[in-house]
Amino acid sequence: MKKIILLSGPTATGKSSLASKLAEKIDGEIINADSIQLYRDLFILTARPNIEKEKIKHHCYGILEGDINWSVGNWIDAINEILKEVINRKKVPIVVGGTGFYFKAITDGLSPIPDIDKSIRLKIENELEKNGLEELQKRLAIVDPKASEKINPNDKQRIIRALEVYEGTNKRISEFWLMKREKIINYESINFKIDADRKWIYKNCDLRVDYMFENGVIEEVRHLLNKNYSKNSPIMKAIGVDEITLFLNNDITIDRASELIKFKTHQYAKRQITWINNQMISWNSINTQYSNKIINEIIKKL
């Protein structure tokens, strides 16, 4: 059976660089597993690899307009076809990113939850803006106590998702969790998660934000705003859009915008670390600070 490599980790840990070095060594191609890097509008703000300058072939980067909602199912269907093509060319697929649910869909399969009408999610997001996250969490505790117990009360996306499923199906998301998942991708995978010191990750996050401001992120967001996407469009939820918008509207200083983006990026990295540690227990742990050694270890497992 053909093998694929899965490389998951928090933001700003050098995943893309490691994947490129590895791909050169093993004649591989890289497939994106970062939900925000699917969108073409924000190259700098999302730290999307500059694939035009890469020697290695990359897939699924910058392929969507900013107002298109893509589910995990959309992504898994797309990369399933890409995996077939890459393997047919006798290359090694390397799936890399920080969106945990994408990797879970590969290793464990898809949840049987049907597609939900987009208007339901929009309604819940409007409720969030009007009443706050605490009120949504209280409602979830009433309609689905088991889900409420498992979902962190600060996890906005999962709370919205649980309510969306309940309203769209009349069935609790905790009931779907008990159902058998559908396996779409049937290749054997070698699974790696990046395990690095949190202070080191936060420092890298801050350096990345500084780099963004030095390399045109304000103009990039200005251009995005000129497209007049709905505030509920996926691309408008990227970390940094709100903060830079406030700066452009003269509501905060550029230093304050940078400070807020760094804080939110730290929070995001922390959530990713928690999710990876809880959901990817059996995965091989690696540290990208020692990339050459890591690459040799990965090659041995092929």
Any chance you could write out the topology, listing elements then pairs?
Elements: E1 3-8, H1 15-26, E2 28-32, E3 58-59, H2 72-88, E4 92-97, H3 100-108, H4 118-131, H5 133-143, H6 145-150, H7 156-169, H8 173-177, E5 188-194, H9 198-214, H10 217-225, H11 241-248, H12 254-279, E6 284-286, H13 291-301
Parallel strand pairs: 1-4, 1-5, 2-3, 2-4, 5-6
What does this structure look like?
By secondary structure, the chain is of the alpha/beta class. Helix content is 53%, strand content 10%. The radius of gyration is 20 Å and the shape is globular.
Overall pLDDT: 93
CATH class of the largest domain: Alpha Beta
Tell me the number of helical segments per DSSP (H or I, 4 or more residues long).
13
| CA gyration radius, whole angstroms | 20 Å
Briefly say what this structure is.
The protein is an alpha/beta fold and 302 residues long. The protein has helices at 15-26, 72-88, 100-108, 118-131, 133-143, 145-150, 156-169, 173-177, 198-214, 217-225, 241-248, 254-279, 291-301, and strands spanning 3-8, 28-32, 58-59, 92-97, 188-194, 284-286.
Key features?
single chain; 302 residues; alpha/beta; Rossmann fold; Histone, subunit A; 2 domains; 13 helices; globular
